[in-house]
Amino acid sequence: MERLTTSAPGGTLAFRGLTLGYARHPAVHHLDGAIPPGSLTAVVGPNGAGKSTLLKGIMGEIRPLEGEVVRAGLARHDIAYLPQAAEIDRAFPIGVFDLVAMGLWRRVGPWRSLKRHRDAVEAALAAVGLTGFERRPIGTLSGGQLRRALFARVLLQDARVILLDEPFAAIDARTTDELLALVHGWHGEGRTVVAVLHDLDQVARHFPETLLLAREAVAWGATAGVLTPDNLRRARRLCEAWDEEAPVCRVPPARPGPDAHPQSHDHGSPDPAPHDHGSHGRHSHGHAA
Amino acid sequence: MIDLLTAPFVEFAFMRRALAGCVALSVGAAPVGVFLTLRRMSLMSEAMSHAILPGAAIGFLWAGLSLPAMTLGGLVAGLAVAMLSGFVARSTVLREDASLAAFYLISLAGGVLLISARGSSIDLLHILFGTVLALDDDALVLLGGIATVTLAGLAVAYRPLVMECVDPLFLRSVGRASGPVHYAFLALVVLNLVGGFAALGTLLAVGLMLLPAITARFWALDLSGLLPASVILALMASVAGLLVSYYASLPTGPAIVLAAGALYLASMLLGPRGGLVWRLMPARHLEA
User: Fold this and answer.
1) Which fold does the domain B2-278 belong to in CATH?
2) What is the pTM of this model?
3) CB of A24 within 8 Å of any CB in chain B?
4) How far is B1 from chain A (nearest CA, A)?
5) B167/A95 touch (CB, cutoff 8 Å), yes or no
6) Predicted confidence (pLDDT) per residue in B50-60, tens digit
7) Buried/exposed code over B147-174 (b: 16+ C-beta within 10 A; e: otherwise)
8) Å from A144 to nearest chain B CA?
9) What PANTHER family does the annotation carry (chain B) (predicted)?
10) ipTM score here?
11) Which residue ranges form the domains of chain A, and what is each CATH number?
């Protein structure tokens, strides 16, 4: 799987007892597992299951309430991220070329000239079918065209790990096919791709690995084994509302390293930073995988 | 006719000094204003101009009407408010406007308290409305220095600053430039407001920063046009304001800002990029 430049065994994204959330309420709860380098993984689950939160956690946009994301050998610029609702100011007077060229940041930084990379930007625009849009202000693009431009930017980032949050939402079928071809291209180049998706047929056809998330990992593995009616029913049952009265979670925090000693956690003493628990008592803690 | 425009500057050294000061201010403050308006932080500079008041007042109480003392004081107070509000916005639930409002109100109240405790109302007017016609060498060096630092700063941070404006999340995701760029920009805003208050006073410095920047939107579509357009408009307002104040014996600061205001109103009506008149007479739509 290691077809990229680095020879280090890094490139794995590992989660160790990862709990992410907002105001102490977990949106992702005690997630353990790893995304190996070069894998193509879909993250599916009902609304409020913590899918976007997981990607934000991987990016470091939000800090874990507990546990950690281990980005072995991955620097910040090795991970490209296409958010669900980009914080883009579409009223800003900037052209498509300049928006897409932002993907070159790692190579050109704040000062180096873009001139030598002009062809690369043109190629990225061509790859998403936006040739001829170079000078168009971003405010005049349709939603789908802006998505394409953002894909072109991800293309230029040349990152080893690519995180896509609902990349095909509100995109027409033909564009979706073209963008899916790009995703397969990335997979072929040995990049790790993680995409949050809702279209289960699409997942079954294009994504070999799937993580079914409903605050906790309901199932994680080969897509066919994950997307079973039974698993999907279980995922739907896990409630998405957060409970204001949720008690503090008493699951012992994961210790760094494989030799954790959960016994050493004293249940009598108050947790240093315990988080509220939205779903205890409603489902078992068993992980079916 | 040409004489009418040039004679005051040829004949009087104080007019030449005022012109030099306003040129320096226009070159630095107007581009900063363009980024402020694009970030939808126009009114932030108004708040900041109040925030520097207590610092200027402390400088005044310390050393009298001394430009270095008041400038230094204003700079310290302004930077403190900018950095604190930036820090609160980046690390708590508060948005930037709310956190800035909190700190500038605290700062302003402190400033008014200081001035009323010691100074007279005439001193306050001096701080608020400046003395463009009495720019000494120190003031000119200060204004020139601020313009130089501003242009250098904008040149160095241009690319990340644009990225921070367009897509802050993306800039955060690719590197660590986001925070430093944000704070550096706030520092440039404070620097130009403090520089402006020596010449125009705290309240009117905002005018020369913002009005040309806002007006430029009616003349240019993108940054490569907006930045030079804003500088040219600021220069035009400065010259026009100085001349009007000279011939009509009006206070200079308000005259300059009103000239900028007149340019704004004219551009809003006639500007080729979305001016009102063009909206009233729309051209037929294209085929595709």
Assistant:
1) ABC transporter involved in vitamin B12 uptake, BtuC (1.10.3470)
2) 0.83
3) no
4) 40
5) no
6) 888 888 888 87
7) bebbbebbeebbbbbbbbbbbbbbbbbb
8) 18
9) ABC-TRANSPORTER METAL-BINDING PROTEIN, IRON TRANSPORT SYSTEM MEMBRANE PROTEIN HI_0360-RELATED
10) 0.83
11) 1-74+160-289 (3.40.50.300), 92-157 (no CATH)
